[in-house]
Amino acid sequence: MTWNVYLSGEIHTNWREELEQGAKAAGLPVSFSAPVTNHPASDDCGVAILGEEPNKFWHDNKGANINAIRTRTLIERADVVVVRFGEKYKQWNAAFDAGYASALGKAVIIMHGADHQHALKEVDAAALAVTETPAQVVDILRYVINGELNGY
């Protein structure tokens, strides 16, 4: 079986690549998917495809709805959803993805630094695991997929 893992959250660091490289090095049977990580394309897809909007609300609404087609489809197909909260911005969309995945009964792994513990306490409570690094996520995947635990 190939496990489908959806990688949601911040787009300003290379955490996705680290996680994918770690899973490949571990020989894990996983397939990764993610939202569109080209920030300008993600923000402007609605108006680029459907036409300009003079009101910023409708500009953003068009883009959010088109992005939701991809996001919802890939989360629904995922076995595991990893949601990363970064340091630079508040990722409200990532919190929504975590809630959506949780409501669907998906296995959710949250990743963030210690400084976000209080702000994300409800999101963390809905997760099956809360991590700080891509390596920890790889270790979780190795364990749940192969039953392998480092040092045992």
Total beta strands: 5
Mean pLDDT rating: 95
Structural class estimated from helices and strands: alpha/beta
What profile does the largest beta sheet have? 5 strands, parallel
Distance between the termini: 24 Å
Helix content: 40-55%
- Name the CATH class of the domain at 3-37 and 78-146: Alpha Beta
Question: How do the strands of the widest beta sheet line up side by side?
Answer: 2-1-3-4-5
CATH fold naming of the domain at 3-37 and 78-146? Rossmann fold
Can you name the CATH architecture of the domain at 3-37 and 78-146? 3-Layer(aba) Sandwich
Radius of gyration: 16 Å
Number of helices: 6
Name the poorly predicted regions.
Answer: none
Principal-axes geometry comes out as globular
Describe the secondary structure blueprint for this structure.
Elements: E1 3-9, H1 15-25, E2 30-33, H2 39-50, H3 56-77, E3 80-84, H4 92-103, E4 107-111, H5 121-126, E5 129-131, H6 134-146
Parallel strand pairs: 1-2, 1-3, 3-4, 4-5
Structure description:
- There is one protein chain.
- The protein is an alpha/beta fold and 152 residues long.
- The chain has a domain at 3-37 and 78-146: Rossmann fold.
- The protein is built from 6 helices and 5 strands.
- The protein has helices spanning 15-25, 39-50, 56-77, 92-103, 121-126, 134-146; strands spanning 3-9, 30-33, 80-84, 107-111, 129-131.
- A 5-stranded parallel β-sheet has the order 2-1-3-4-5, sandwiched between helices.
- Helix 5 links the parallel strand 4 (107-111) and strand 5 (129-131).
- Helix 1 packs parallel to helix 6 (134-146) and helix 2 (39-50) crosses helix 3 (56-77).
- The longest helix has 22 residues, at 56-77.
- The radius of gyration is 16 Å and the shape is globular.
- The two termini are 24 Å apart.
- The relative contact order is 0.18.
- The mean pLDDT is 95.
